[in-house]
Amino acid sequence: RQELYRELRDKPSVTRDGVHIDLMMNAGLAVDLPQLAESGAAGIGLFRTELQFMVASTFPRAEAQEKLYRDVLDAARDKPVTFRTIDIGGDKVLPYFKGVGQEENPALGWRAVRLTLDRPGLLRTQMRALLKAAGGRELRVMLPMVTELSEIRQAREIIDKEVRHLSRFAHHLPTSLKLGAMIEVPSLMWQLEEVMGAVDFVSVGSNDLFQFVTATDRGNTQLAGRFDPISVPFLRLLRQIARTGEKTGTSVTLCGELAGRPISALALLGIGYRAISMSAAAIGPVKAMLTELTLGELTALMDETLDAPTSDRDVRAMLHEFASAHD
Ligand code: PEP
Ligand code: MG
Hints:
This is phosphoenolpyruvate--protein phosphotransferase. By secondary structure, the protein is an alpha/beta fold.
């Protein structure tokens, strides 16, 4: 298998019926970077910047942030990298950050973009580091846990201000700056077109989205496996995001754990996803699956299943059957 994956690495990521799929990797620390070349990923679809903060014993200084971001962009060369602004709070606690007190529901609490908008100094420092590191190159930045449009507007104001500040001091700026939002809070589902109109791209955080849609703590082992994301209702929801992206001409990726398992990746391709981001180790198995896939057939099957009036169909079993019939 490992040999097959290595062989596949330099082959195009295309289905049997000629549809190109972008397989990207998730990363968060400098140690992850060699895997970009080893896995043959098309880029870094999610760079979790909070990891640098989580492994440190105090807030990483601006210079340390800038160095990491520059190293990441250097390693990626001409492959795209999407940096997510710090997603702390919730399950990602910083022991040295006293701002977050005891919360009854940390997952629903003061976290991610909520926290960085309330402590704009954190976002300003990070943005300045990103803008400097990406001088002369493209910069892609993504906001976690967006709940309403105004958060995108506020973040953009802070970012624009940093851009103006740096250009006043004649810094070498990025050639282009793309701002994206993660879709992981259900409220965005009823303002999808507006959100897509306000950003350059979106990425579905299926881990949190599933947690919030099913009211199921993603870290609670007692509930692990109780509800299946490969189910009609959740796939209908994910399909709606992909379709709205198509309608509005917005690039949509998905970067949760679902992307990294061949059977769930199969479901994602079948409902319209053309770019997914996963752990580096998952790229080989997912690529092996998709190069054997006739996407047209799968799409028809998925649409038929999701458009049927009953929502209790066993989609997982159906996908396994589909996969083995085409082996
Ligand atoms: C997600 O929520 O799906 C996601 C990609 O982000 P994280 O797992 O870091 O919350
Ligand atoms: Mg998340």
